[in-house]
Specification:
This is Peptidase S15. This protein has helices at about 1-15, 65-75, 100-115, 130-140, 160, 170-180, 185-195, 200-205, 215-220, 225-230, 265-280, 295-315, 315-325, 410-415; strands at about 25-35, 40-45, 55-60, 80-85, 125-130, 145-150, 255-260, 285-290, 340, 350, 360-365, 370-375, 385, 420-425, 430-445, 450-460, 465-475, 490-500, 505-515, 540-545, 550-560. With about 575 residues, it is of the alpha/beta class.
Length: about 575
């Protein structure tokens, strides 16, 4: 009764379509045995409706709490909802090894579904983050009975996100390892740790060597954390069987993708979108002003996901409703394939025919005097700074796993540090709308051959507050980035895509620094192995911006936006 009441209140608050039924039968802790004998604990939410299709959710985060509410809401919308704990989590047997068993376990679960008396021959999948990875693991082999996927803040491969710019996403990986381990401790102990501000995790993020950080954070050695530290090179065989992007062309199911501009997997998810488009598919893409795990993302994913599942799984919803005596549903709306939220003053939602939209690639060059201009660079001396990995440049906001610490922040505290250099435009005479991929090209000279280059684009408002819009980091080593005869290195930096309107009177600002810790593991400056490095070596570097070294950020200015005045 309480679940039913909570679902009714949530459906009203979330403005979901009228429920097809309020009568849902829940069977918990079904023992589903897979091919190697492991038992996967599974719950089934059965609506009191004839011929209802199935929605499958596979998760390592348990089946209680918000997931229970989500499953009931989906069941009331007219789906058999099957939610299963991945092996080694939530009471399921076996050991949790990220990405290893998800294809086979998913196929065995699908075989079980096909043998159920309520199976209609059509199913969809729904889920965020790791719940999306398991969808991609199964999708290419699920066959035509897979009629719809809803992939939220996720991607078909996590390798590139784990080693963004060939660095290491320390905060995301270690926080996730701690989160998974926390599910095994008593509830009260976990609440006490959260109330204390997670001091063990904080200490672990600052600890060296990294091979000990998992034990500092959790009290135990986390096997996958150790493996990810060891197998970090681009050619590592370890990841070949743990990524699914090479099979996207075999996925025939319609896919809805929902993400946020400050989500940790956004670049990889947009690559999935473009890979599907290359096959002729028409996925639905929604990107909003959200971070990974933020409430806004959850609400949007639920609305978009239920609508997508309804339109692709229910062949004749009107007929089902007449048979069940349910409230008639509104006719589906013909929506644009891409919907994005443009941040900044005067922004808002935009419907697009595709991603990315047509745009003018506008270069903003670094100039002397800390100026950022669209005019060509001029002869000038470089700007330099000292980076010390023993006092690493801190990360502030941006794409992080924990929603409360992610997203836009006023960057002035970081920009005041001597190891951060900035270039700022004049106040804009007219607004500029930037929508699409963003990249930078930084020319530098460094006394160290091992270093990181972090680049961040900010919107400086009329009060002088500097709000981060997008960023990116690249790890430099002499093999990947050999210096020229003058000792200069050219570093291309792929930054997070964005959709943002810089209002009149605002200024653009570009930051360049030597890292963003603990979001990215600090670069020790020595070339030591990722997990074993303990020696920290600081060094001076110069950012060059003369005509022979035209450092710049390239912004996709949409055609409808006002162009900046040359400066």
């Amino acid at each position: 009764m309480l679940d039913r009441l909570a679902a009714g209140l949530a459906a009203t608050a979330l403005r979901l379509p009228p429920a097809r039924t309020r009568r849902v039968t829940v069977t918990r802790d079904i023992a589903l045995r897979v091919r190697d004998g492991v038992i996967l604990r599974t719950d089934h939410y059965a609506p009191d409706l004839p011929a209802a299709p199935t929605v499958l959710i596979r998760t390592p985060y348990g089946r209680a709490g918000p997931m229970r509410l989500l499953c009931r809401l989906a069941a009331e919308q007219g789906f058999h909802v099957v939610i299963q704990s991945c092996r080694g989590t939530g009471g399921s047997g076996g050991e949790f090894e990220p990405f290893v068993h998800e294809r086979d376990d998913g196929l065995d679960t699908l075989d079980w579904l096909r043998r159920q008396p309520w199976w209609t021959g059509a199913f969809g999948m729904f889920g965020a983050s790791y719940q999306g990875f398991v969808q991609w693991a199964l999708a290419a082999d699920a066959g035509p009975q897979l009629r719809a996927m809803v992939a939220v803040a996720t991607a078909s491969t996590t390798r590139d996100s784990t080693y963004a710019g060939e660095s290491f996403a320390l905060d995301t990986v270690l926080t996730w390892a701690e989160l998974l381990q926390a599910q095994t401790v008593p509830w009260l102990a976990r609440q006490w740790e959260l109330k204390r501000g997670q001091p063990r995790l904080t200490a672990a993020l600052a600890h060296l060597p990294l091979i000990e950080a998992d034990r500092v954070a959790t009290g135990v050695t986390v096997p996958f954390f150790q493996e990810w530290l060891r197998h970090h090179t681009p050619q590592a065989d370890y990841w070949r069987s743990r990524v699914f992007d090479d099979r996207l062309h075999l996925v025939s199911s319609p896919v809805a993708m929902v993400s946020g501009w400050h989500d940790i997997f956004l670049p990889a998810q947009l690559r999935d979108y473009q890979a599907l488009r290359a096959t002729g598919a028409r996925p639905r893409l929604v990107v909003g002003p959200w971070t990974h795990g933020s409430p806004g993302l959850f609400v949007a994913a639920l609305r978009e996901g239920l609508r997508w599942l309804d339109s692709h799984l229910c062949d004749d919803p009107a007929g089902d409703e007449r048979a069940a005596g349910a409230t008639p549903r509104p006719e589906p709306v013909d929506e644009a394939p891409v919907r994005v939220h443009v941040g900044g003053a005067g922004g808002g939602w935009r419907d697009l025919p595709d991603w990315p939209p047509p745009a003018d690639a506008t270069r903003w060059y670094l100039h002397p005097g800390a100026a950022l201009r669209t005019s060509d660079p001029v002869p000038s001396a470089p700007d330099g700074f000292w980076y010390d990995p023993a006092d690493p440049t801190p990360s502030l906001g941006g794409p992080l796993l924990v929603a409360q610490r992610a997203g836009p922040f006023d960057n002035r505290p970081v920009e005041a540090r001597p190891d951060v250099v900035t270039w700022t435009s004049e106040p804009l005479a007219a607004g500029i709308e930037v929508v699409g991929p963003v990249r930078a090209q930084i020319h530098l000279r460094s006394e160290l051959t091992h270093l990181d280059v972090f680049v961040r684009l900010c919107d400086v408002d009329r009060r002088g507050r500097s709000w981060n819009i997008c960023d990116g980091l690249v790890r430099v080593d002499p093999q990947r980035f050999p210096a020229d005869h003058d000792g200069a290195v050219v570093v291309p930096v792929e930054m997070w895509p964005t959709a943002h309107r810089f209002a009149p009177g605002h200024r653009l600002r570009l930051q360049v620094s030597g890292g963003a810790h603990p979001r990215y593991a600090r670069n020790p400056g020595t070339g030591e192995p990722l997990g074993a490095a303990v020696t920290l070596r600081g060094g001076f570097r110069e950012i060059m911006h003369d005509p022979d070294h035209p450092s710049a950020v390239v912004l996709p200015v949409v055609h409808s936006a006002s162009q900046p005045s040359p400066s």
